[in-house]
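Record type: ASSEMBLY
Status: queued
Input:
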Amino acid sequence: MAALINVPSKARRGDIIEIRTLTSHIMETGFRHTADGKLVPRDIITSFACRYNGTEIFRADLFPAIAANPYLSFFTVAKDSGKFEFEWIGDNGYSTTASASITVE
Amino acid sequence: MTTTIGAHPTRRLILQGAASVALLGLGNLPFGAAPARAAANDKYPEEAFKQKNEADAIKALYGRTAEPSDKVKLDAPEIAENGGVVPISVTTSLDKVTSISFFVAENPNALAASYRIPEGTIPAVANRLKMAKTTKLTAIVEADGKLYSATKEVKVTVGGCGG
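Status: finished
Output:
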């Protein structure tokens, strides 16, 4: 599954950086019915986590009220060069990961 | 026979536990505080999510009530043409923020998203929500053990929950 990550590739130490993520996911609420009246089962991403050089800096629990293709943006402080790791976990065993690296000067 | 007897008390205990957490409000008793903390920190807050009502969901997630604060800035459109994608964001000037949550009052389940903000991360988040109809949107910020909220009315022209 495709995930779009937007992390600045370079930053100065102490800078506040914005991290934006976009995943492709249907985020089916479990409230909708098909034309013949059957309930469409819930299929959502339930949690998201971001680690910066192994330390968790952001975690989110998501619910059906999140729009399809979940977009999340948050801010952190650039400390060291290294790697951001992202992880999405959802219903029906859905799991996807992504990573991005940053150079801190 | 034995199985039915075995199953019922367990279910009742769980329901009682959930009810007492909701009723305790401030949760100054250790029994009340423990489940609320566990829900906020560790696992997926299933119990809070099941609450249909906004106030119940806040209590189930945090175990207490929030006070309105102008230090919480909630940004959402006045009118959302498509309830399926409503961009929202929240920022705050409060210190020691540990979590941020969004509640959509008129949705089938009020709790929409809950974020854990460890130390060092800036307390500002943005995402996109679904809204069933014109509704009150509430952002809760947990800072230094207290809850602060900001609310905004969003007019929705086409609902985002389908049927």
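Annotation: Residues 16 and 77 of chain A are 4 Å apart (CA to CA).
Annotation: Chain A has a mean pLDDT of 91.
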